[in-house]
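Example 4.3 (complexes with small molecules)
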Amino acid sequence: MATILREWSYRYPWFYDGVIRLAALTVGGETKFRQLALDGLEITPDLHLLDLCCGDGQATRFLVTRSAHVIGFDASPIAIERANQNVPEAKYVRGWAEAMPFEDQQFDLVHVSLGLHEMRPVQLWRIMQEVHRVLKPGGVFTLIDFYVPVNWLYSLGLNLFLLLFETETAWQFIKTDLLDLSARVGFQEADRTLYAGGSLQVVHARKGTQ
Ligand SMILES: C[S@@+](CC[C@H](N)C(=O)[O-])C[C@H]1O[C@@H](n2cnc3c(N)ncnc32)[C@H](O)[C@@H]1O
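Answer. The structure with S-adenosylmethionine bound is encoded below.
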Protein backbone atom coordinates (compact mmCIF):
# COMPACT_ATOMS: atom_id res chain seq x y z
CA MET A 1 0.00 0.00 0.00
CA ALA A 2 1.12 3.57 -0.65
CA THR A 3 -0.57 6.94 -1.04
CA ILE A 4 -0.64 9.73 -3.61
CA LEU A 5 2.50 11.04 -1.88
CA ARG A 6 4.50 8.24 -3.52
CA GLU A 7 3.38 9.38 -6.97
CA TRP A 8 4.21 12.98 -6.10
CA SER A 9 7.65 12.00 -4.86
CA TYR A 10 8.41 10.47 -8.27
CA ARG A 11 6.76 13.26 -10.24
CA TYR A 12 8.15 16.30 -8.40
CA PRO A 13 11.88 16.27 -7.62
CA TRP A 14 11.48 19.17 -5.14
CA PHE A 15 8.99 17.08 -3.17
CA TYR A 16 11.20 13.95 -3.08
CA ASP A 17 14.27 15.98 -2.15
CA GLY A 18 12.34 17.86 0.55
CA VAL A 19 11.08 14.65 2.13
CA ILE A 20 14.57 13.11 2.12
CA ARG A 21 16.02 16.30 3.59
CA LEU A 22 13.48 16.16 6.39
CA ALA A 23 14.02 12.43 7.04
CA ALA A 24 17.81 12.96 6.99
CA LEU A 25 17.53 15.22 10.04
CA THR A 26 17.40 11.97 12.04
CA VAL A 27 21.09 11.44 11.22
CA GLY A 28 22.20 15.09 11.30
CA GLY A 29 21.17 16.39 7.88
CA GLU A 30 21.35 15.40 4.22
CA THR A 31 25.08 15.92 3.71
CA LYS A 32 25.77 13.55 6.58
CA PHE A 33 23.11 11.10 5.35
CA ARG A 34 24.53 11.00 1.83
CA GLN A 35 28.01 10.16 3.10
CA LEU A 36 27.13 7.54 5.73
CA ALA A 37 27.53 4.64 3.31
CA LEU A 38 30.95 5.97 2.24
CA ASP A 39 32.33 6.53 5.73
CA GLY A 40 35.32 4.36 6.50
CA LEU A 41 35.98 3.45 2.84
CA GLU A 42 39.17 4.49 1.12
CA ILE A 43 38.00 5.99 -2.17
CA THR A 44 40.74 7.41 -4.37
CA PRO A 45 40.12 9.44 -7.57
CA ASP A 46 41.23 6.56 -9.81
CA LEU A 47 38.59 4.11 -8.54
CA HIS A 48 35.61 3.17 -10.72
CA LEU A 49 32.32 3.76 -8.89
CA LEU A 50 28.79 2.71 -9.80
CA ASP A 51 25.78 4.50 -8.29
CA LEU A 52 23.09 1.88 -8.76
CA CYS A 53 19.45 3.12 -8.81
CA CYS A 54 20.91 6.63 -8.94
CA GLY A 55 17.57 8.42 -9.33
CA ASP A 56 18.10 12.11 -10.07
CA GLY A 57 21.73 11.91 -8.95
CA GLN A 58 21.13 12.70 -5.27
CA ALA A 59 23.98 10.43 -4.10
CA THR A 60 25.95 10.65 -7.36
CA ARG A 61 26.61 14.29 -6.45
CA PHE A 62 28.69 13.09 -3.49
CA LEU A 63 30.42 10.25 -5.35
CA VAL A 64 31.83 12.60 -8.00
CA THR A 65 33.67 14.52 -5.28
CA ARG A 66 35.61 11.31 -4.50
CA SER A 67 36.37 9.88 -7.94
CA ALA A 68 36.67 10.97 -11.55
CA HIS A 69 35.11 7.70 -12.77
CA VAL A 70 31.49 7.58 -11.65
CA ILE A 71 28.64 5.93 -13.53
CA GLY A 72 25.03 6.50 -12.48
CA PHE A 73 22.64 3.72 -13.43
CA ASP A 74 18.84 3.70 -13.30
CA ALA A 75 15.86 2.12 -15.06
CA SER A 76 13.98 5.39 -15.44
CA PRO A 77 14.73 7.56 -18.49
CA ILE A 78 13.38 10.61 -16.65
CA ALA A 79 15.70 9.98 -13.69
CA ILE A 80 18.66 9.59 -16.04
CA GLU A 81 17.82 12.84 -17.81
CA ARG A 82 17.52 14.74 -14.52
CA ALA A 83 20.72 13.16 -13.13
CA ASN A 84 22.56 14.23 -16.27
CA GLN A 85 21.44 17.81 -15.72
CA ASN A 86 22.04 17.78 -11.95
CA VAL A 87 25.43 16.04 -11.90
CA PRO A 88 27.08 16.27 -15.35
CA GLU A 89 30.44 15.17 -13.92
CA ALA A 90 29.22 11.54 -13.97
CA LYS A 91 28.35 9.32 -16.92
CA TYR A 92 24.93 7.66 -17.01
CA VAL A 93 23.57 4.37 -18.27
CA ARG A 94 19.95 3.30 -18.32
CA GLY A 95 18.88 -0.28 -17.69
CA TRP A 96 17.64 -2.85 -15.21
CA ALA A 97 19.73 -3.57 -12.15
CA GLU A 98 18.82 -7.25 -12.54
CA ALA A 99 20.74 -7.43 -15.84
CA MET A 100 23.36 -4.71 -15.94
CA PRO A 101 25.04 -4.03 -19.28
CA PHE A 102 28.51 -3.98 -17.72
CA GLU A 103 31.51 -6.26 -18.07
CA ASP A 104 32.45 -8.62 -15.25
CA GLN A 105 34.78 -7.04 -12.68
CA GLN A 106 34.39 -3.46 -13.96
CA PHE A 107 33.91 -1.53 -10.68
CA ASP A 108 35.85 -1.00 -7.47
CA LEU A 109 32.75 0.14 -5.61
CA VAL A 110 29.02 -0.33 -6.16
CA HIS A 111 26.85 2.02 -4.10
CA VAL A 112 23.06 1.83 -3.68
CA SER A 113 21.16 4.50 -1.79
CA LEU A 114 17.48 3.91 -1.05
CA GLY A 115 17.14 1.69 -4.11
CA LEU A 116 16.83 -1.92 -3.01
CA HIS A 117 13.70 -1.54 -0.86
CA GLU A 118 11.83 -1.16 -4.16
CA MET A 119 12.72 -4.71 -5.26
CA ARG A 120 10.77 -7.94 -4.92
CA PRO A 121 12.77 -10.77 -3.24
CA VAL A 122 13.55 -12.50 -6.54
CA GLN A 123 14.78 -9.19 -8.04
CA LEU A 124 16.85 -8.51 -4.94
CA TRP A 125 18.57 -11.88 -5.25
CA ARG A 126 19.34 -11.30 -8.95
CA ILE A 127 20.61 -7.75 -8.30
CA MET A 128 22.94 -8.92 -5.53
CA GLN A 129 24.36 -11.50 -7.94
CA GLU A 130 24.83 -8.78 -10.56
CA VAL A 131 26.54 -6.47 -8.06
CA HIS A 132 28.94 -9.29 -7.16
CA ARG A 133 29.61 -10.00 -10.85
CA VAL A 134 30.45 -6.40 -11.83
CA LEU A 135 32.75 -5.81 -8.83
CA LYS A 136 36.47 -6.35 -9.17
CA PRO A 137 38.11 -8.85 -6.81
CA GLY A 138 38.44 -7.04 -3.47
CA GLY A 139 35.74 -4.54 -4.56
CA VAL A 140 33.13 -3.22 -2.15
CA PHE A 141 29.35 -3.09 -2.21
CA THR A 142 27.89 -0.37 -0.02
CA LEU A 143 24.24 0.28 0.67
CA ILE A 144 22.11 2.61 2.73
CA ASP A 145 18.44 1.76 3.16
CA PHE A 146 15.64 1.17 5.65
CA TYR A 147 15.79 -1.36 8.46
CA VAL A 148 13.81 -2.47 11.51
CA PRO A 149 14.03 0.23 14.21
CA VAL A 150 15.05 -0.74 17.72
CA ASN A 151 12.87 1.71 19.62
CA TRP A 152 9.19 2.63 19.46
CA LEU A 153 9.67 6.27 18.48
CA TYR A 154 11.69 5.44 15.36
CA SER A 155 9.40 2.50 14.72
CA LEU A 156 6.45 4.88 14.63
CA GLY A 157 8.31 7.23 12.30
CA LEU A 158 9.42 4.51 9.89
CA ASN A 159 5.99 2.83 9.84
CA LEU A 160 4.39 6.14 8.97
CA PHE A 161 6.98 6.83 6.27
CA LEU A 162 6.52 3.38 4.70
CA LEU A 163 2.73 3.67 4.83
CA LEU A 164 2.77 7.04 3.08
CA PHE A 165 5.52 6.51 0.51
CA GLU A 166 6.35 2.87 -0.01
CA THR A 167 4.83 -0.37 -1.24
CA GLU A 168 4.85 -3.94 0.07
CA THR A 169 8.44 -4.50 -1.13
CA ALA A 170 9.77 -2.08 1.52
CA TRP A 171 8.03 -3.94 4.36
CA GLN A 172 9.58 -7.20 3.10
CA PHE A 173 12.95 -5.57 2.57
CA ILE A 174 13.39 -4.35 6.16
CA LYS A 175 13.02 -7.95 7.34
CA THR A 176 15.58 -9.29 4.83
CA ASP A 177 18.96 -10.23 6.23
CA LEU A 178 21.32 -8.59 3.75
CA LEU A 179 24.38 -10.03 5.48
CA ASP A 180 23.08 -13.53 4.86
CA LEU A 181 22.12 -12.61 1.28
CA SER A 182 25.59 -11.15 0.68
CA ALA A 183 27.23 -14.33 1.91
CA ARG A 184 24.95 -16.46 -0.27
CA VAL A 185 25.86 -14.59 -3.46
CA GLY A 186 29.55 -14.95 -2.66
CA PHE A 187 30.71 -11.87 -0.74
CA GLN A 188 33.45 -12.76 1.72
CA GLU A 189 32.93 -10.19 4.45
CA ALA A 190 29.89 -8.10 5.26
CA ASP A 191 28.89 -5.84 8.13
CA ARG A 192 25.94 -3.69 9.06
CA THR A 193 25.88 -0.40 10.98
CA LEU A 194 22.60 1.03 12.23
CA TYR A 195 21.57 4.70 12.39
CA ALA A 196 18.46 6.69 13.34
CA GLY A 197 17.34 4.30 16.05
CA GLY A 198 17.91 1.35 13.72
CA SER A 199 15.57 2.65 11.01
CA LEU A 200 18.52 3.02 8.61
CA GLN A 201 21.16 0.41 7.84
CA VAL A 202 24.50 0.80 6.12
CA VAL A 203 25.87 -2.46 4.76
CA HIS A 204 29.40 -2.92 3.48
CA ALA A 205 30.25 -6.20 1.73
CA ARG A 206 33.60 -7.05 0.19
CA LYS A 207 34.20 -9.42 -2.72
CA GLY A 208 36.99 -11.92 -2.20
CA THR A 209 40.28 -11.39 -3.98
CA GLN A 210 40.40 -14.89 -5.58
C1 LIG B 1 13.92 5.98 -4.26
S1 LIG B 1 14.86 6.23 -5.70
C2 LIG B 1 16.50 6.43 -5.02
C3 LIG B 1 17.20 7.57 -5.66
C4 LIG B 1 18.57 7.94 -5.09
N1 LIG B 1 19.52 6.85 -5.19
C5 LIG B 1 18.50 8.45 -3.67
O1 LIG B 1 19.30 8.00 -2.83
O2 LIG B 1 17.69 9.33 -3.37
C6 LIG B 1 14.94 4.59 -6.38
C7 LIG B 1 15.42 4.56 -7.83
O3 LIG B 1 15.54 3.18 -8.21
C8 LIG B 1 15.19 3.07 -9.59
N2 LIG B 1 14.85 1.66 -9.86
C9 LIG B 1 13.79 0.98 -9.36
N3 LIG B 1 13.82 -0.30 -9.81
C10 LIG B 1 14.94 -0.42 -10.61
C11 LIG B 1 15.53 -1.50 -11.33
N4 LIG B 1 14.98 -2.70 -11.33
N5 LIG B 1 16.68 -1.26 -11.99
C12 LIG B 1 17.25 -0.03 -11.98
N6 LIG B 1 16.74 1.03 -11.31
C13 LIG B 1 15.59 0.83 -10.62
C14 LIG B 1 14.03 4.03 -9.75
O4 LIG B 1 13.87 4.43 -11.10
C15 LIG B 1 14.45 5.18 -8.82
O5 LIG B 1 15.13 6.19 -9.55
